[in-house]
Amino acid sequence: MPNITFSSPIHKDKTVYAVAGSHTQTILKIAKDNHIPIDFSCEDGECATCMVKITPLANHGQRTDPMASRLTDKELVVLREHKKINAEDIERMRVEDVSVTPWRLACQMILRDEDLLVEY
Ligand code: FES
Asked: Residue ranges of the 2Fe-2S ferredoxin-type domain (predicted)?
């Protein structure tokens, strides 16, 4: 199971070992369960309050290539509204099946089996 390191300029970094069954949980749920103070409001992918920057980490905490997990439809809309992605990015993600942005909505992103740095 993955380690999730939550990092903020105003809070101490905290690394959480995601337990079995967490593959159905969002980053926000894991943060809340571990008392990580990520801001949130709607919890439904509408407001962008929970926007975080995600960096996949290889073994030993080294940064690795961007992960290929798909953004949800709600993330595509909200990230475009906030100019974190554009129409070309969306098309590239659709055609090449890659993620072109580190920005995600913590209330929408489901954890996968990879270590992550989550900046909030
Ligand atoms: S809390 Fe509103 S988009 Fe995540």
From this structure: 2-120
CATH 3.40.50.1820, applies to 3-119: no
- Averaged pLDDT for residues 75-89: 95
Residue 108 alpha carbon to ligand 1 centre in Å: 8
> Using CA atoms, how far apart are residues 100 and 54, in angstroms rounded to an integer?
11
CA of 48 relative to ligand 1 center, distance in Å: 5
Q: pTM of the entire structure?
A: 0.88
In contact, 107 and 40? CB cutoff 8 Å = yes
Residues 6+ apart with CB under 8 A from 10: none
Is residue 59's pLDDT more than 50? yes
